[in-house]
Amino acid sequence: MHYLKQFTVIIAISALSELLAIFIPLPIPASIYGMSLLFLLLMTGVLKLKQVESAANLLLGIMPALFVVSGAGLITSYGQIAENFLSWVAVNIGSTIVILATTGLLAQGLIRRKKAKEAGGNG
């Protein structure tokens, strides 16, 4: 029963993010609104991790299976992709590097901030 409650919370956040994407005139996908909203709710304590953790872990566990259909779609569209293959590769490599760098810098910043806060609280 706890999975049902947790999935309901995740689906409600997803539905709210779809509404945000409709009513906010920015070219931001609803999934980004949803992840941002979920992050804010968790960071502010409005939503506790235990309220979504089991369902989120289940979704993360089956995530590779969710990409099989899109992978098959790419294979069937190879003819259309082939003419721009090098562009696709360049974009994928470039975006991967940007994402890795951004994630690493953000993680370092958060770790430094946490250490500074702990050092300030112990002094």
TrEMBL record:
One GO CC term, this protein: plasma membrane
Alphabetic keyword roster: Cell membrane, Membrane, Transmembrane, Transmembrane helix
InterPro entries, per database record: LrgA/CidA (IPR005538)
Membrane topology field: Multi-pass membrane protein
Subcellular locations according to the entry: Cell membrane
Highest taxon, organism lineage: Bacteria
Transmembrane segments: 7-26, 32-49, 56-79, 85-107
PANTHER family: ANTIHOLIN-LIKE PROTEIN LRGA, HOLIN-LIKE PROTEIN CIDA-RELATED
Descriptive protein name: LrgA
Record lineage: Bacteria, Bacillati, Bacillota, Bacilli, Lactobacillales
